[in-house]
Amino acid sequence: MIRTTFSELLGIDVPIVQAPIGAASTAQLVAAVSDAGGLGMLSGSWREPDELRALIADIQSRTERAFGVNLGLAWDQAERLAICLDAGVPVVSFFWGDPSTFVEEVHAAGAVVMQTIGSAEDARRQVANGVDVLVAQGWEAGGHVWGEVATMALIPAVVDAAGSVPVIAAGGIGDGRGMAAALALGAQGVWLGTRFLASIESAAHHVYKGAVIAADEAATAYTTLFDGGWAAPHRVLRNSTYRAWEAAGRPAQGRRPGEDEQLATNADGSAVRRYDDAKPVEGISGDVEALSLYAGQSAGLVHDVRPSAQIVFDLADEAERALRRALSTFGE
Ligand SMILES: Cc1cc2nc3c(=O)[nH]c(=O)nc-3n(C[C@H](O)[C@H](O)[C@H](O)COP(=O)(O)O)c2cc1C
């Protein structure tokens, strides 16, 4: 069994975190990962207050183990944070902004603060702010990408800067070999988005899951193309929308092919436009393939849709075998 300071801190069995994956992170997914001994993480950033309360209660009815809620600081999260802390959420993870005004409040509620960073300088700043765990997100990550350094170079630099604060590696990890590598680089745990997107419990649309499974490691792009709703760098599959924009000579916003065209309809009847930032989930109807299909380079390592508990067990088992194999290369 792989144990680290991070797994000890949270009382989890294995240092594996299911990354928040927008609306695809369901209560079922979060609870199944936590129940399997990892740490499930709900995306809270864009939920209405009542929906967030209900999702947290749903998770708590499914598992007694620790889980987290992720809040993006590109938006005001004071109300959502209060909802989390009132409900007794044990871990709060922040992304895309400065968490310093919230750290004391989270600690006063007895919860742990995680912060996503993208450089050693970022790491030093957040250690000084009092965060408990750093999530170092490499450039190969799926979804919105904060930094520009690849995981392999980022993790050791952040570990050196973090002192005794545990560092969790995010980006490019799709199987136990990646987890073993992250641990060898000094990380105390791993954080996977794309792998858990292709799980039974994820709400990602089946066409989206199929596209992730079909993708190889070269199938994604780091871009700002899907800017409807939130204009920030992200990594997506190079789908028909991306290819058409490339073929048109990569024109600027306002002159792109099919600008403002409605491609799909959400379950609530609202329109989804070609360059919208929404993650397609089950219930959406229309041309799902052409929407923003966030995924990391790790998609090349994801070949099937598995139960999320199985993903946790397989990762831990493969990582242990990979580490033993690496050790066996030593002579007497
Ligand atoms: C569909 C999707 C949605 C994401 N949404 C969030 C989010 O809401 N908050 C966040 O902190 N990170 C989000 N991320 C980024 C992940 O936290 C993580 O950094 C990334 O998935 C790691 O790379 P990987 O996909 O190769 O595992 C998202 C990633 C994906 C693929």
UniProtKB/TrEMBL annotation:
CDD domains: NPD_like (cd04730)
Record keywords, A-Z: Flavoprotein, FMN, Monooxygenase, Oxidoreductase
Keyword Flavoprotein set for record: yes
GO molecular function: nitronate monooxygenase activity
Pfam family name, one: NMO
Record's keyword annotation contains Oxidoreductase: yes
Protein name as annotated: Nitronate monooxygenase
Annotated organism of origin: Agromyces ramosus
